[in-house]
Specification:
Shape: rod-shaped
Strand content: 25-35%
Distance between the termini: 134 Å
Number of helices: 2
Number of strands: 7
Order of helices and strands: HHEEEEEEE
Amino acid sequence: MPKTPVILAATALAVAAFGAAPLGHAAGKLILPTNSVGSKQLKVSSVTSQKVKDGTLTPSDFAAGQLPAGARGPKGDNGEAGSQGPKGDAGATGSQGAAGAKGDTGEKGEPGIPGAKGDTGAPGASGYQIVTGTAVQIAPGASGSATATCPAGKKALGGGFSTTGLGRARVDASGPPSDGQFWLVSAGNVAAAGTLSLQAHVMCGAVV
């Protein structure tokens, strides 16, 4: 039990005794046993602020909210940095950014190392020449053939024909035979009148 109520109780009891007897007699006869005055012996509102000695009360003697708040104290020192927390989860993938501007043209690179020599190609034709055959005359309504033959040792590589005269040709065939030695042209004269002159041409070459 706090000491303040005991002091207040003793003071109040002494005052009450003074009021019941002359001052001289009361002072001479006032004898109180130790711890004999408590809260039960005090009347309501019998202890006032004038009866309490300054500086004898502590914060624990007051109810919550009875003491006014003191002035705000100075700001405290910064605390020490806390330990590093655990690694957070990976964030969601952001949207694709806009395309950047085109960069400058880079410097010209060094020439590359020459590649290996390629394989030898297949043999080609040599001794190319064009041979024109003898012209063949074809009467109106008739058919005929003209040839152009390659020299010995050469084959027909391609060919064709030409016509002259008043006739009108209907070409039935134009090409080399299976041995490729000459070029053959077969045609008919479909004109009602006029002779057709048909001549074959062949391109020859030596095939290795």
